[in-house]
Structure formats: structure tokens, C-alpha cells
Amino acid sequence: MLHALEAARIPATVFVGGRWAEQDPARLRALRADPLLEVGSHSYRHPHLTKLSDAALRRELHRAVEALVRLDGRAPALLRAPYLDADARVVRAARAEGLTLVGGDVASGDPDPSFRKARLTRWVLAQARPGSIVIMHINGHGWHTAEALPGIIDGLRKKGFTFVTVGELLGLPAGR
């Protein structure tokens, strides 16, 4: 996926888990070094956040931010809740951690192995609207995402779409 994004000069936001970042700090630093990419938090362990107690929720979010800061010195500005599982309590906990909670309106379906290249491409092109946040998996859980991405990019460009990071879409200051 990164090669497709780089080849097409597409900015993107990559939401990473704190545990993953700790397991692969070189990859986190590579993501952070790419000027087209923005890195946000995807929690520490990838749980359903709404099912956690208040204390466990605060620990989960804090631990993820702490890991990212420790590994590359920068706190994320954004949080995408695993499974898009969020409520008002999660929003408050995210804000307390300095995070803006974001969702997505086009779930590509890429974790489903039956969503092959053509199906992923058709689905995303049919669902995307101005301002859409398309969710795709860069972590190996997107079975056919890398294959589909060039066609998705071309199709969205033909429809007049431009690409920005989530932070840019929300008007957040750059550099976090």
C-alpha cells in the first residue's frame, strides 16, 4: 500500500496501535519520516473501547500515546477507535488525552478475503463522497488492498477527488 500511495503522491493518515509500534519501532519511524503520511493512534491493544471501564479506557489511550511519544518524540493528534467503536465516553477520554476522535464513512471491507481487487475498487468508488474518510488496512489485514489501491486512486481522481490527510480534512495544525 505504501508503494502505491508514494507512486501516486497521495497523502494519507495511518492509525497505528501502540503495541504494534513498540514491536516495530523502525517502521513507525519510517511512517513518520514520510512527508505524505500522518500518524494517528489506533489505541494500544485494539480493544472495543466502549466495553472498557473508565480506568481501563484511560490507560488504553494513554499507553498508546505514551508509546508513540517514547518511540519518536511526537504525540498523535488523532484517534481512530478500533472497530469504529466509540461513544461520548470515548470522545471525552480521547479529548483528555489530547486526541481528536475520528471515524470513517467508507469501510472498504478489505479485512474480508472475499473482497478481491475488483470488488474493493467498485465498492469504494461507489461509496466515496466529498469529505469521505475511507478505511483501509495497511497491517496485512487488508487482503487485497494493495492490489486495489491504484485503481481506487485512479477512479477517485477521475471523479474529481483530491486527497488529504485526516488532519488536513479537519483543519488541524500540521506537524503533530
Structure description:
This protein has 176 residues and is α/β, with parallel strands linked by helices. It has a single domain (2-170), classed as Glycoside hydrolase/deacetylase (TIM Barrel). Helices cover 45% and strands 11% of the residues. The protein is built from eight helices and six strands. The protein has helices at 2-8, 18-23, 25-33, 54-72, 88-96, 117-127, 145-158, 166-170, and strands spanning 12-16, 37-41, 78-80, 100-102, 106-107, 134-135. The strands form three sheets. It has a two-stranded parallel sheet with strand order 1-2. A two-stranded parallel sheet has the order 3-4. A two-stranded parallel sheet has the order 5-6. Helix 1 (2-8) packs parallel to helix 7, helix 4 (54-72) packs parallel to helix 5 (88-96) and helix 6 (117-127) runs parallel beside helix 7. The protein is globular and about 45 Å long. The protein starts with a helix and ends in a 6-residue tail after the last helix. The mean pLDDT is 94.
